[in-house]
């Protein structure tokens, strides 16, 4: 069962925090509010889809500073910025750094709710992709060193006979390693295997191929 999404609100105006919490809660979402960036940074990331509704101007770390700090800690939380003092350069900077939306007060409640929905969907997709990659890594590690080698050579486009010649072994032995490797990877076809290895390659510095 998917955990209940969490929306974090950071604004140093208590009345704004209260109104935002009431509005977002009306969507059936869990809401946690904070009066500063520092307090949010002390909060352990939840094991659930989440996003951040963030005021640009805050005491201490600004909203843009917090965005940069979260990125440096690899806390990839989608951010919806809100501000009463927005300008084009500021919004461009925030969006280039990955913000989902940049809303200038006063904004329509529905615009904020729509942005939150998009942000949560984005985070849910990221979590699913990371879980898929983690599962693939676990499967790959379960292969023997020779199976890993054969699988990597297979997805590079080499034929069984070529792999056998390269490894100095019999072609039938390569077929066995290939079959067992594909079974452990849960690959139904060579195309499946190639896709899996591409995901591993693109998500890690480890040279899977």
In brief, what are we looking at here?
The chain has helices at 14-25, 37-41, 63-72, 88-96, 109-142, 145-155, 160-167, 171-185, 190-203; strands at 6-10, 30-34, 50-55, 79-83, 101-104. The protein is α/β, with parallel strands linked by helices.
So how many helices?
Answer: 9
CATH homologous superfamily designation of the largest domain: Response regulator
Going by helix content, strand content and strand pairing, the class is alpha/beta
Low-confidence runs of at least 5 consecutive residues: 205-209
Instruction: Briefly note the CATH topology name of the largest domain.
Output: Rossmann fold
Query: Can you tell me the CATH architecture of the largest domain?
Result: 3-Layer(aba) Sandwich
- Mean pLDDT, nearest integer? 91
Distance between the amino and carboxyl termini: 35 Å
The total of beta strands comes to 5
CATH class of the largest domain: Alpha Beta
* Rg calc: 24 Å
N to C succession of SSEs:
EHEHEHEHEHHHHH
What is the share of helical residues? 55-70%
Number of domains: 2
Percent strand equals 5-15%
Going across the major beta sheet, what is the strand order?
Answer: 2-1-3-4-5
- Describe the main β-sheet briefly: 5 strands, parallel
Write down the overall geometry.
Answer: elongated
Description:
The structure is a single chain. With 209 residues, this protein is α/β, with parallel strands linked by helices. It has 2 domains: 6-129, Response regulator (Rossmann fold, 3-Layer(aba) Sandwich); 143-203, Arc Repressor Mutant, subunit A, CATH 1.10.10.10. 56% of the residues lie in helices and 12% in strands. It has helices at 14-25, 37-41, 63-72, 88-96, 109-142, 145-155, 160-167, 171-185, 190-203; strands at residues 6-10, 30-34, 50-55, 79-83, 101-104. A 5-stranded parallel sheet has the order 2-1-3-4-5, sandwiched between helices. α6 crosses α8, α6 (145-155) packs across α9 (190-203) and α7 packs across α8. The radius of gyration is 24 Å and the shape is elongated. The model is unreliable at 205-209 (pLDDT under 50).
């Amino acid at each position: 069962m998917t955990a209940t999404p969490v929306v974090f609100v950071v604004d140093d105006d208590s009345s704004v925090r209260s109104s935002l919490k009431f509005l977002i809660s009306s969507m059936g979402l869990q809401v946690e509010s904070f009066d500063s960036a520092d307090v949010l940074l002390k909060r352990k990331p939840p094991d659930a889809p989440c996003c951040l509704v963030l005021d640009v101007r805050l005491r201490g770390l600004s909203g843009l500073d917090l965005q940069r700090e979260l990125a440096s800690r690899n806390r990839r939380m989608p951010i919806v910025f809100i501000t009463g003092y927005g300008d084009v350069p500021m919004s461009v900077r925030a969006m280039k750094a990955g913000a989902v939306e940049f809303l200038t007060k006063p904004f329509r409640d529905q615009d904020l709710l729509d942005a939150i929905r998009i942000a949560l969907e984005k985070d849910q997709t990221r979590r699913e992709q990371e879980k898929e990659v983690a599962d693939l890594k676990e499967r790959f590690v379960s292969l023997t060193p020779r199976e890993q080698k054969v699988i990597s050579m297979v997805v590079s486009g080499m034929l069984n006979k070529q792999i056998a010649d390269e490894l100095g072994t019999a072609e039938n032995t390569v077929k066995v390693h290939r079959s067992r490797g594909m079974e452990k990877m849960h690959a139904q076809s060579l195309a499946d295997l190639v896709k899996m290895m591409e995901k591993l390659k693109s998500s890690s510095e480890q040279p899977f191929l």
